[in-house]
TrEMBL record:
PANTHER family: NAD-CAPPED RNA HYDROLASE NUDT12, NUDIX HYDROLASE, NUDC SUBFAMILY
UniProt record similarity statement: Belongs to the Nudix hydrolase family. NudC subfamily.
Catalytic reaction annotation: a 5'-end NAD(+)-phospho-ribonucleoside in mRNA + H2O = a 5'-end phospho-adenosine-phospho-ribonucleoside in mRNA + beta-nicotinamide D-ribonucleotide + 2 H(+)
Biological process according to GO: NAD+ catabolic process; NADP+ catabolic process
Record lineage: Bacteria, Bacillati, Actinomycetota, Actinomycetes, Geodermatophilales
The enzyme's E.C. designation: 3.6.1.22
Organism: Modestobacter muralis
Full protein name: NAD(+) diphosphatase
InterPro entries registered for this protein in UniProt: NAD-cap_RNA_hydrolase_NudC (IPR050241), NADH_PPase-like_N (IPR015375), NudC-like_C (IPR049734), NUDIX_hydrolase-like_dom_sf (IPR015797), NUDIX_hydrolase_CS (IPR020084), NUDIX_hydrolase_dom (IPR000086)
Coiled coil: none
CDD domains with a match to the protein in the record: NUDIX_NADH_pyrophosphatase_Nudt13
Cofactor (UniProt): Zn(2+); Mg(2+)
EC category name: hydrolase
Amino acid sequence: MTVPDGGSTTADNPPPTRGEWPDDSRAGAVTDVPLLSRTAHDRGHLERLLPDPARGRPVRVLLVDDQRNVPVHEGPHGPALVYDERATYPEGAVYLGEADGVPYAALRAPRPDTVGGQPVSSWTGLRQVGAQLDDLDAGLLSQAIGIIEWHERNRFSPITGAPTTVERAGWAQRDPESGREVFPRTDPAVIMLVHDGGDRCVLGRQAAWPAGRFSILAGFVEPGESAEAAVAREVAEEVGIGVTDIRYVSSQPWPFPQSLMLGYVARATDLDLQIDDDEIEEARWFSRDELRSGTGPQALPPNVSIARHIIDRWVAGEFS
C-alpha cells in the first residue's frame, strides 16, 4: 500500500483530510533528518525511577484529548507544546522520560479551559505541527501519541481476554488471570523511493487522497520477511516492476497507530508500470525537474514525514 506521509492508512487510521495537505509542492529544499526522534529523552533508568518517576519534583504533563490533539502556543520562535506542570505524578499518566533534569509524562484527558496557567493558541495534532516543533517537543509528542494509542487498542489481554492492568508507569500491561506482561508493539513498515537509475522516480496515489497528491510507495513487513524483501514485494505488488540495488536510508517512528517506517531507495529493473487497482489508484514516473519546479504533483508529503525526506534527498542528487 502507498503510505501518504510516513505512516500507514487503515480503517482505524484514515488519511489526512484535504485541509491537512501542505501547500509546498516543490521538492529538494528539505534534507535534514526527519523529526520525531527521542534524542532528548532518557527512559533508560525507568526501573530506578519507579514507582515515583517524578522523584518528588514537579512533572511536566502533556495533555492529549480524544482526537489525539495537544495544546500548542504560538510564540515568537514558532509553535511550542504547552505542558501542565503538576506537583506530583498524575494517576493514569504515562512516563515519557527525563530531559535536562525535568520528568515528562502524557495523560489522556478532556480539554481544560486553561493549561497550567499558560496561554493556548490551539489544540492540534502531530501531522499539523510536528515539523514546526523543536526536537524535544516533537519527540515527546510522537512518543505520547504512540503509547496512548497502544493503551487504547490493547485494553484486554491477547492471552485470556481479561481486562489488563497498567504497570511500569504506563509501559506495560498485565493479564490478571495468567500473570503475563504485555508490552507495547511496533509494526515495521518499509517506505521506498524507486528510481530508474537516471532522472526519474515512481510516485503513487491512493484513491482516498485528493487528486494530484502523490508520495513514494510503502507497505508493512510481513511475518518471516526481511525489510529488503518487503521493498521488492511491495513494489512488485503495487506497480508491477522489479527492483535491485535496495539501499537503506533512515527510519522514523510514525505513531498512526504504531509503525516504524524503514526508508529505502531502489533502482527499477524495468520501466513499464502495471498498476494494481486494489493497492493504489495511480502511479507515474516523475523527473527531478518536475519535482524541483513544482510542475509535477500538485501536493507532496509534508516536511515532517520520512517520505518527504527521502524525496528531497533524491531530488538534491544524493541517491542515484
